[in-house]
Amino acid sequence: MQALNVLIVSTKESQYIQHILASKYLNKLYVTSENEVSNTIRIKFNTFKELAQKCKSLQIDIVLVEEEKWILEGISNVMRQHFINCFAVTSEWTELKLSHNFARTMLQKYLIDVPRKINLPIDFPVLVKADGILKKANSMQEVIEIKESIFHNSPEISKTVYLEQMINGKKQEVISLFDGKHLLTFPKKEIDLNLLTEYSKRLENLLLSEKANFIGFVNSYIIQSDNILYNVGFNFKFTIPDFEMLNTSLPNDFLYICMSAIYQKLDEISFNTNI
Asked: First and final CA of the chain: distance in angstroms?
């Protein structure tokens, strides 16, 4: 495998720099953070197009986007237009995070469990959701106040409001990487492996059936309750799993996994879960 030039896109110093610097496949590591970071080269840019042009001139092989706000603003679309290997979902898929209604409809279509909707709450607390809004209500009065506040700030968003069951359990982040053909979901000690495998298959089916065309992280927020995995949200930023918290052994070089994603070979990454 060739030595790689890698860029981490973040406004702050990335928490994953040392993982990338330790890779035997790394040639040069570039960063966009506001602070100078040892053993890296800092890039400044004003627009995504300018950044893409710099990536081409510097022969950057992989762009890892840790700044989620820039993913939501469409950095992946611009990079793809310039044929840059950018690890981030394209703008149309950011709706999974930005719109609770869109995400709920899409997940239910592919038989992924989500908390049930509530028309008239009897038990509290409940969640009040609208596009881009999530608030907990401990009484009917609070529900009314939240709805009124949403309507006051945005009558349009208020049309998307609904109430949702609050699932008891620990919310956990599950990290998944999609290469355009395969979804690689990293096991986690605290989540049942069989349930997580089934969840990953259904999420992969969703992406493939809806013709998702990107390389990027589709990380899920999951609550396991009564032998069910409930999806309660997404994030899309570049994330390296905490290997010590995984119920598996992994290839010890994360850039190897990244290159596998570029060549759409994530299905060849295997885990030893008998450890």
From this structure: 29
For residues 138 and 148, what is the distance between their CA atoms, to the nearest angstrom? 16
Rounded CA separation 233/167 (Å):
13
Q: What does the pLDDT average to over 65-85?
A: 97
pLDDT tens digits along 239-258: 998 766 555 555 568 999 99
d(CA 68, CA 237): 5
DSSP codes joined into one string, 155-209: HHHHTT-EEEE---S-EEEE-EEE-SS-EEE---TTS-HHHHHHHHHHHHHHHHH
Sheet of 86-87: strands edge to edge? 41-42, 26-31, 4-9, 62-65, 86-87
CATH number, domain 94-112+169-268, options 3.30.470.20, 2.40.40.20, 3.30.300.20, 1.10.10.10 = 3.30.470.20
Domain boundaries along the sequence of the chain = 4-88, 94-112+169-268, 117-165
3-state secondary structure 3-32: CEEEEEECCCCCCCHHHHHCCCCEEEEEEC
Report the candidate in 140, 117, 165, 123 with the shortest Cα–Cα distance to residue 148: 140
| pLDDT-derived band at 275, boundaries 50, 70, 90 | very low
- Please give the CATH number for the structural domain made up of 4-88: 3.40.50.20
| Structure tokens, 192 | 């049942």
